[in-house]
């Protein structure tokens, strides 16, 4: 903190300099500091910074003023609330000043502060207080101020506030409206326009009463029609309101439209124009542009000539729209439009955009520039040889080069250079004929007085070189070398060197032949006393090394020599004290703070030498990464130099030094074969032998830094040491006592970040894996507590890494490979219990679970304990399939095996598990093998049907069905006879029959179809619904055997007088509908309407199963029902209504219980509605649909849970429709969230209500993803109510976090 205060004081002192450049640079540096997340100002620094920035708003230099304004933005989040209020008070006072420049800068300052305030949705007290202060001042300035310029600025700021923070200002909406309405009759047109804009930003968040008052005022004034001028203004105001909140205007259109129609007949062209603009706004608004975007993205769309003209004209017009969102969408529409219209239309678009780029309207310039970039991105690539691309490029290039060369407005130049860069990047080869004029246009920009122009010119040139001819490239290189040799100005020399580096990065292969001339020039400039120039030289060297490795070979020694010289270049700092410290013993406990203070003492804000050191280190890294052949040379010269520089005082440079050394280690890794290869081991000069000799120096240079306060430095040390331990396993064995304290410090230090702890644990894992256990035994006592603490860390990645360490720790404390005298007992309990706790946690992350399971392995291995396991039931099926495969391969042995399985079933001593497995094996074997020789098999299976164990009965049923598949002639008649004669076994026998129908071929079943059909219809009348469902499934699957014959017979049964039969038939149809293409599909499409008529059946249960069938069709094959929706939907919606005649009371002892017999039908209807959202949204009247969703939000628990999910999906799929019903939808959500369970209710009631609240809040979170919903006063009130209640606020906050992390994952479910 002291260091930061000192740094800030330095900057503030420079801001008082008489030199404007000093003031500018200091303010710029302050801006950079304020933008850092880590900055924390003490109270004194806050006061000084605020005072200085407010003072700089009056600076005589415009650029300093602008920077001071920009600084206010990040400052808002860094100072206390009262400081922000001080800033706002001063800016408001300045706005009324008679100094125009101060007024302007203060207005910009207020806009900047408003833009940085926490959004309204956070309920921030700061936002509320600041808005309160500003609003009172602004409304006063607007109402009473005689100076029009002050009025205009005040209106602009008020518009900004309403746009961002409208809902925070709800208590001020009435006075704001009272202040704005008189401005609509101002004699100044500019004031009227600003008032319209402010009103348009007021309406999205104002209350219904305020909105009605505004509309009433506008309609009253329009009916008076006292002045044509004010009438025009009121009509413009209506159009603007519609653009911002069209969903609210709808209910007033019945009164508005006749008035506008009347004014269309008045002989005033301007008035007519505004009427038509209002009509357009009511019809189109934002959604129209959005819909157009969706249409243009469809491959099938084809526009006729008239439509092309209209679309192009309208989109180009919308680029000037006052609504920023509409502008942005219009720009996006230009992309897909390029491929949908004729070539001359694209040229029209390009001509208009190029013309607009030179406009004096900044917003139009910006949108047109974006439009040009969009069009360029969509043009066919150069490789296609498209004439359209060539013609459009020709038009754009001529305009751009003209704008770059002649334009005095720098912002236009910059945009033109950006667009030219985009074109050259994508379509450079198409522009070959223009390369020469482009080069001629760009070269002069390298000497522009504006640095931004020079940088953009460098980027454009770098995109030109990959596709330009050899002559053009030579001309460019010749120009750069000539200008460098002249060296007329250090500033331009820097630019030319930057240009060389950029060209090399884009087309290094072409630079190679010129390096003989370039390198000597750059070497010469490295000796010039200009740090920035040296930095650019090293950046160029780095680029040449990576992009021209072959041509750079002769120059590598020179480059290495320069790099080694300048990585120690630090003229403002004395390292002697550090060297004395390095000579001391490796004591990790002292000296850290002293070292840091020494570094701060010598820091100099104007010192640029660190940039030279950093660029030279990066250049060295490039050399080491690309020259594996010089590895031994690197260990002789570069490695010692880098180790010596580990003491670097500048944190960013030190990080790059670590990265450079890691690059050297990574290059060394592939040569690890020496560890096993005796012939190479004999080479004393091998790189790994040299590295091994340097390890003590590496540890000596790093071990102290492991306890520095700088997290970045510590992380760098750990990553380097991890790489070293991987390259040389065991090399750190002698140094573990020096390293362990640093690891423990990083794991226990409260300031350590999550990444810091993860890196420390990773390093610890590598040490434990790569070093002998005995070297680590003395340190287990110190290592264990922080590792155990990390296992319990709430962040799953830390826990996961700690479990990995634990896994290795167990192997270290109880090595299995060889006997150990180390006593592990004091440590095992802590490790085991902490790991077991994680394993038992219900909400455990999958990665943590897997690591915890892996961790238990070594525990059990080390304790020599063996646990018994019980085979999972699902694995029985897999075993049975394996047995069947073996029996088909070895048929002779199979008979004895079958006999054994039958004996297992008969044996009364066999466990249920053995009997289940035996039946499953008999099933799988019997499916492919005829078991007619086993005479007692039928009896054994039928006896098992009486078993008390349900799983045994189910396995026996499954076995009978599958054995029957293998021998239909014998077993199917037997089965059908049993079904008819044994009512107690009927259910299980029907399941066996279902297996037969499902698994047998159609051809094999044909002889038995009639018998099965007749039998099944006899059992349709069974009173047990479970049995009827199995019958229905059998009927459905049997129909698939011969659909042409059996489907009409099913349809005929719809006229049965029995509700049971009708419901069974409808359910059977459900089983004929799958997501696969089947022969029955065409037949079903022709008669599905008859089955859907059962939605009108007088029987409640028939209607329910009809809804289930409809849902299955909508989910699996929507094409079956799409054409019937017009007739089906009224009946579907009718089933969503609560029917009082189906609600009855049942007496249960002293209590009365309400039973709703219609609940299941309603639930089925809502599930159908949910499915239709996915498959048939385009066929739904969404407003009618929303009526029933609204009713569902007030229904039973199950239905409310479903409609909450539906509402969340609708928010994403139909936001505009949802917005129009928002007020009505919010109320049932509010009711759910605020309902309290009666005291004394059972636990389940509390749990159900809690889950309802959560689901309702998920729906609220989904609604808030609609941009306009955030501005709604009803929604704002509701969210404020949620945040005011601590319990609801906590739930809502966690839901919002989940929503952000899985935005694409809207809740879905399968209701088929």
List keywords for this structure.
single chain; 1312 residues; mainly alpha; two-stranded antiparallel sheet; 2 strands; globular; disordered C terminus
Give the helices and strands, then pairings:
Layout: H1 2-14, H2 20-34, H3 43-56, H4 62-76, H5 81-95, H6 100-116, H7 125-144, H8 148-165, H9 173-180, H10 189-202, H11 208-224, H12 228-249, H13 253-264, H14 269-283, H15 285-296, H16 305-318, H17 324-338, H18 343-357, H19 362-378, H20 387-406, H21 410-427, H22 435-442, H23 451-464, H24 470-486, H25 490-511, H26 515-526, H27 531-547, H28 549-552, H29 556-566, H30 576-583, H31 592-601, H32 609-626, H33 631-644, H34 651-668, H35 678-681, H36 687-702, H37 711-727, H38 736-748, H39 754-770, H40 773-776, H41 780-791, H42 796-813, H43 825-840, H44 846-863, H45 873-889, H46 891-906, H47 912-928, H48 937-944, H49 950-966, H50 968-981, H51 986-999, H52 1002-1005, H53 1009-1018, H54 1025-1039, H55 1043-1052, H56 1059-1070, H57 1080-1092, H58 1100-1116, H59 1125-1134, E1 1143-1148, E2 1151-1156, H60 1159-1175, H61 1182-1192, H62 1197-1213, H63 1215-1220, H64 1222-1234, H65 1243-1263, H66 1273-1284, H67 1286-1301
Helix pairs in contact: 1-2, 1-3, 2-4, 3-4, 3-5, 4-6, 5-6, 5-7, 6-8, 7-8, 7-9, 8-10, 10-12, 11-12, 12-14, 13-14, 15-17, 16-17, 16-18, 17-19, 18-19, 18-20, 19-21, 20-21, 20-22, 21-23, 23-25, 24-25, 25-27, 26-27, 27-32, 29-32, 32-34, 33-34, 33-36, 34-37, 37-39, 38-39, 38-41, 39-42, ...
Assign an overall shape: globular
Question: What does the largest sheet look like?
Answer: 2 strands, antiparallel
Strand composition percent: under 5%
Can you give the mean pLDDT? 83
Strand pairing plus helix content: what structural class?
Answer: mainly alpha
What level of helicity do the residues show? Answer: over 70%
Number of strands: 2
Compute the gyration radius: what is it? Answer: 40 Å
The number of helical runs is: 67
Strand order of the largest sheet: 1-2
Instruction: Name the poorly predicted regions.
Output: 583-603, 670-685, 864-870, 1302-1312
Note the gap between the termini. 62 Å
